[in-house]
Amino acid sequence: xxxxxxxxxxxxxxxxxxxxxxxxxxxxxxxxxxxxxxxxxxxxxxxxxxxxxxxxxxxxxxxxxxxxxxxxxxxxxxxxxxxxxxxxxxxxxxxxxxxxxxxxxxxxxxxxxxxxxxxxxxxxxxxxxxxxxxxxxxxxxxxxxxxxxxxxxxxxxxxxxxxxxxxxxxxxxxxxxxxxxxxxxxxxxxxxxxxxxxxxxxxxxx
Length: 206
Known about the structure:
Rossmann fold, 7-stranded mixed beta sheet, 6 helices, globular
């Protein structure tokens, strides 16, 4: 995109506007009514979901950032300008969680991902230092089977070596529901955010 690109200007305007927490759900039964288009952020525990949401919206503490993996146990909904719901899902694959609790979290996550009619895109986050791990592949295959569109997004790319991006792009091409473009971001350096903002803005209600 170039300076003055309409999609970039629209994204800048949307993400500069109001964004507020509106709902937290600890069970499938507790999910809010489907109203706005939704974009859901999902990934392994401690991959940087909350940090990325904060960076995208220009807030320091919109989404709670925890140094303890597995701390987020609810699906949190953030209304972006009355046009798009940003959804922060609990991290998956945290080994130290009890088996019962881990199963409960993952049931909540996957029930939401496969059954939410107004879910427009899943933003599947991958730590750039680790790339695609086995549990990420399992999530991708689940989304493929459920025909839920998702895009792979690297976090913490201030530590990224270029072959990691190429490997993830190659993996995306092997999956039927994966968006072809891979986004590379760093919340710490505020890098790569505009491309992802523009992608999300295209999903928003008029």
